[in-house]
Amino acid sequence: MKMVNIERISEFETLDSQLNFTNYKDLEDFNNKLSDEHYFNKMKLSISLLGGRDLSDSTRKIASLLISHELILKMNWTGVNEKFSLVKLQNILKLIYVSVR
């Protein structure tokens, strides 16, 4: 019988309520907060546990945890056409990268 770590489930529920940003300003604030090494490592540990079938699936899961569907529709890589830029969020990109490795 497989044991489920209830503490981990609770941690993901907490993460989900803290994250899933719906506006770009909050996402930028989170990006800035990730400059703190201790906070970054804590987030990396929590987010890397999401897992996935492959690299693409893991990346998609992390992105959907961090950014709401409504906000991601208002974003693109460079921020052209009056959209928000994803490439400016370097700490978030780094977090995703190290979490799926």
From TrEMBL:
Domain of life: Eukaryota
Pfam families linked to this entry: DUF4806
Domain DUF4806: 23-97
Stored InterPro entries: DUF4806
Name assigned to this protein: DUF4806 domain-containing protein
Organism: Psylliodes chrysocephalus
